[in-house]
Design goal:
CATH superfamily of the largest domain: P-loop containing nucleotide triphosphate hydrolases
Shape: globular
CATH class of the largest domain: Alpha Beta
CATH topology of the largest domain: Rossmann fold
Order of helices and strands: EEEEEEEEHEHEHEHEEHHH
Number of domains: 3
Radius of gyration: 20 Å
CATH architecture of the largest domain: 3-Layer(aba) Sandwich
Strand content: 15-25%
Largest sheet: 6 strands, mixed
Distance between the termini: 43 Å
Helix content: 10-25%
Structural class: alpha/beta
Number of helices: 7
Bound molecules: guanosine-5'-triphosphate, magnesium ion, zinc ion
């Protein structure tokens, strides 16, 4: 049988069969992996083949279809291992907040690089608009103008408000990842979109604490063929599988200047006649984006 992995808890996977049934499946024995050294050989979003066990209730996953893409990070639990956050995505909503908690631009830029490397479109959704002061609004306008110009549309919302037409418009016929720090409101947004409490969210009193509320990546069918993937909040997003020399290629704002440096292998750090550094001086590339770039290649 064929199915879609809608949830992975480590040992057990929820697999939605073609008949629409959810079957709890396991892996058995040695399982051939597409990527080495991952903590999870099967990820939410994977398309798999499985056989039913004798009890007809559970299944055993026998193979996985090649993924069209995936979001991968360094494992936070196991050194030298990576973790696949989700696979086969059409787009990602990066849920960011100015406060409670603060999402840094560096964190946003890291995610943009990884998603862009797999050609996964990203829409940046700034949540908790109700907490913003005028100063924050001005900051949002500046940041949103810059990101929109380089291909990442931005929205400002409150996930507690039902007024989410602009977001709903984006979801049709797509598999959408909800990505962001813990506490930014991914599950709250999911609940508001569905109009019911399908995921636990953090109680209002414990907003500042760093603990995860959502513990497994899980896929929800919002409407026919439209899925949302809710994940546990990401604290640090360690980039893996991208060489430092490639990072600049995934900065759309660097693109017009790439190939114009004096040295073909310019790292844009300290070389003379660097077109990227010149573009920063002229204000064509923002300082913060360059800072994010340096942090990634230095790591
Ligand atoms: N003020 C305000 N609070 C919000 C908004 N959206 C969500 N919250 C609150 O933020 C807290 C965290 O929300 P969650 O939806 O649990 O956050 P999450 O991103 O799913 O967190 P993890 O599952 O830990 O990754 C909850 O107390 C929500 O009520 C908003 O628009 N404004
Ligand atoms: Mg959550
Ligand atoms: Zn350069």
């Amino acid at each position: 049988m064929k199915g879609l992995v809608t949830r992975s808890t480590g040992l057990w996977y929820d697999v939605k069969s073609e008949a629409g049934e959810i079957i709890s499946c396991r892996l058995k024995g040695k399982f051939r992996q597409e990527i080495n050294q991952v903590t999870n050989p099967i990820a939410t979003g994977d398309r798999v083949e499985f056989i039913l066990e004798e009890n007809k209730k559970n299944g055993i996953i026998t193979s996985i279809e090649p993924r069209t893409n995936y979001i991968i990070r360094k494992s936070s639990r196991k050194e030298h291992f990576d973790h696949i956050i989700a696979s086969n995505l059409d787009q990602a909503l990066l849920i960011a907040t100015f406060k409670m908690p603060r999402t840094s631009l560096g964190f946003i830029d890291r995610f943009l690089v990884v998603a862009t490397s797999f050609e996964i479109p990203v829409i940046i959704v700034f949540n908790k608009s109700d907490l913003l002061k005028e100063r924050d609004l001005n900051k949002f306008n500046d940041i949103a103008a810059y990101y929109s110009k380089i291909g990442y549309p931005c929205h400002l919302i409150s996930a507690l408000n039902n007024d989410l037409e602009a977001i709903k418009q984006l979801l049709n016929q797509k598999t959408t990842l909800l990505f962001g720090h813990s506490g930014t409101g991914k599950s709250t947004l999911l609940n508001t979109l569905f109009g019911e409490e399908i995921q636990h969210t953090k109680g209002l009193t414990s907003q500042k604490k760093g603990s995860h509320t959502t513990t497994f990546a899980q896929m929800f069918e919002w409407s026919e063929n439209s899925y949302l993937v809710d994940i546990p909040g990401i604290k640090e997003f360690g980039i893996t599988h991208i060489e430092p020399a490639e990072i600049g290629l995934y900065f759309p704002d660097f693109k017009p200047f790439i190939g114009q440096c004096k040295f073909y292998n310019c790292s844009h750090k300290h070389e003379p006649n660097c077109a990227i550094q010149a573009a920063i001086k002229e204000g064509k590339i923002s300082d913060w984006r360059y800072k994010s770039y340096l942090s990634m290649i230095n790591e």
